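Action item from last meeting closed. Structure (175 res):
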């Protein structure tokens, strides 16, 4: 009985964690898109008014778009929106589908964990080499940090989906 209560508490904590992180990711993603729009509109207005665009506005917009797009990966994992081959489902009995979904979460966790490690190594080398953007002359690692983050948080999500199938989002129907 105590094990069941502890399991329920862990599941509730896992659900709260992924939902809380999801809310933060959505806010950051929307904020990044807002910054893209603001930078590009300001650049166009400056071109019309003073005859010259704002220095670095377009590059800044590119960086913000990259961050928003990368965080979009994690958002899609949380909302069950990734595309997958559904034809395989018909090869197996319907009763197997929940177990197959759990196995899929475990495999996805392993893949994301692998890429998280690789992305962290890439980020580390970028920091060590002191790589900078050629236009803005700023370090690029603060933008690149989104890559290991998205893979690490996605690996964690998939691990939690494997451990607690009830918190796994329902897959969206794709046409």
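Sequence:
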């Amino acid at each position: 009985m105590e094990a069941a209560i502890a399991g329920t508490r862990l599941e509730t904590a896992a659900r709260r964690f992924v939902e809380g992180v999801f809310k933060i990711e959505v806010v950051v993603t929307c904020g990044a898109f807002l910054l893209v729009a603001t930078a590009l509109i300001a650049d166009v207005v400056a071109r019309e008014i003073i005859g010259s665009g704002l220095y670095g506005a377009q590059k800044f917009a590119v960086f913000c778009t990259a961050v928003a797009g990368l965080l979009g990966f994690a958002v899609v994992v949380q909302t069950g929106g990734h595309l997958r081959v559904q034809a395989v489902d018909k090869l197996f009995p319907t009763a197997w589908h929940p177990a197959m979904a759990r196995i899929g979460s475990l495999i996805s966790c392993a893949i994301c964990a692998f890429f998280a490690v690789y992305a962290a190594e890439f980020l580390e080398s970028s920091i060590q080499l002191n790589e900078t953007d050629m236009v803005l002359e700023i370090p690029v690692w603060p933008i690149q940090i989104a890559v290991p983050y998205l893979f690490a948080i996605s690996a964690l999500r998939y691990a939690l989906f494997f451990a607690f199938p009830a918190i796994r989002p329902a897959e969206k129907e794709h046409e």
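Note appended to the action item: The helical segments are 2-50, 57-79, 97-128, 141-144, 146-163.
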